[in-house]
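Exercise 7.
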Amino acid sequence: MIAEPLISIVEDDTSLQNALVRLLRSVGYNAKGFISAEEFVGADLLNDCSCVITDIQMSGMSGLDLTNLLSRHNPPVPVIVITAGVDQGVRDAAFANGALCFLNKPVDTSVLLECIKTALAF
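Solution. The predicted structure, written as tokens, is:
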């Protein structure tokens, strides 16, 4: 039996995290939320995770650091970065660290779902 893909949401804004988890579950995805990058890494799900959606600015390990870590994992885990800040330097850094997609908040759900489809095709 093939395991259902797991999409992890790493977002310190719990209301947004919960909304994203509900959205993904409502369209049939297996989604789990984490309050920090450290919580996600500590959950030991890297080998089970098919895609990560992460905020950039979080206390502790940043979303950029997490993106870099996941891009070096074997196999690499596709990452979708979301942020409230619109900064070309941050966008460039996210892609340099291995991000697949870069989305601004508020997140356009149709674009997010397309990014997820692309990530799951890897």
